[in-house]
Amino acid sequence: MNLPEVDRIRITSVVDNFVDLLLRDEGPARRRPRRERVFEGCLCAEHGLAELVESSRGTEVLPLMFDFGASPLVFLHNLDLLVQDYGVDLGAIRTMVLSHGHWDHFGGLLAFLRQHRESLPEQAHLYAGEDAFLARWQAAPRQPRRDMGMLDQAAIEALGVGIVKVREPQLLSGQALLSGEIARRTSYEVIPSTMRVDRDGEDIHDELPGEQSIVYHLRGKGLVVLTACGHAGVVNTVMHAREVTGVEEVHAIIGGFHLSGAPQDRIQSTVDDLIGFDPDIIVPMHCTGIETIDALRERAPEKVIFNSAGTRYELTAG
Ligand SMILES: [Fe+2]
């Protein structure tokens, strides 16, 4: 599929597992300006992810929302502050993308729509994998079942937001590519059988086939791959992005790599393959885990940027 090049991508981290007010600007990372009364405008961290992403191609601009944090409390609080800080126009956002149907990615969505539906364009749409609205949980032996949530599709539609279910790679406004279902290629990026989903009343292993990543082609630099939780495997995701677009160069890999608590050999294999893509920038977020961040920084300190909620990445064409 031909993915048209964009001239600029601006990614604002709205919710992440980390908040650090003291980080310095670094490469394309611009830290949130501190307010005079710092204590009144503090962002919160939580185990979740949400981003505002804006790309442009010539005079055409595509703003979108990618995921919605874990809780209404944090998502709405952080979004409100960042909309003020950066002058975000919610009225221009007709595209929302949900990566997958886990609570730490859709948690703030319904509360956001209830509060801000009037501010969004009438034709606002939510793009998600076809399995994003199923009931999910974790069932480890000898442990209580842990509910991973279930997003209420009817409640979203009742708020006048259209839902587009994605299976195949899909171009958004000629700028961003929704991955579609991500092919699984590596031997080590395996989803444990403790992840469960209800398919037509049947309790089955949840391999999250519908998980979506967002991919851009930044002019003169290469692919920019945004993962959310990376259940499909961040290496699989980058391979998929390359194959679908036919673009080999990888400029940036940004998002959750889902390796917190993972076995050491899986972390090592992932780091080897990520470095093998030779990206210019790696921004590990959310569920990546400190061991993987350490391992990446050991291998390629100049490529790795530590994220904090509120950080804005300004990626520009080469
Ligand atoms: Fe997650």
Question: What can you tell me about this protein's structure?
Answer:
The protein is of the alpha/beta class and 318 residues long. The chain has a single domain (5-316), classed as Metallo-beta-lactamase, Chain A (4-Layer Sandwich). It has seven helices and 19 strands. The strands form three sheets. It has an eight-stranded mixed β-sheet with strand order 3-19-2-4-5-6-7-10. Strands 1, 11, 12, 15, 16, 17 and 18 form a seven-stranded mixed β-sheet that branches. Strands 9-8-13-14 form a four-stranded antiparallel β-sheet, with no helix packed on it. Strand 11 (170-172) and strand 12 (176-178) form a beta hairpin. Helix 6 (264-276) packs across helix 7 (290-299). The chain is globular, with a radius of gyration of 18 Å.
Which labels suit this protein?
binds fe (ii) ion, single chain, 318 residues, alpha/beta, seven-stranded mixed sheet, 7 helices
Describe this structure in a few short sentences:
Helices cover 21% and strands 28% of the residues. The chain is an alpha/beta fold.
Write the layout of secondary structure elements.
Blueprint lengths: L4 E2 L1 E8 L13 E2 L19 E8 L2 E7 L5 H15 L8 E3 L5 H4 L2 H8 L8 E5 L6 E3 L7 E4 L3 H6 L3 E5 L3 E3 L3 E3 L16 E5 L2 E4 L8 E5 L3 E5 L7 H12 L4 E7 L7 H13 L4 E5 L4 H10 L12 E5 L2
Parallel strand pairs: 1-15, 5-6, 6-7, 7-10, 16-17, 17-18
Antiparallel strand pairs: 2-4, 2-19, 3-19, 4-5, 8-9, 8-13, 11-12, 12-15, 13-14, 15-16
Helix pairs in contact: 6-7
The protein binds fe (ii) ion.
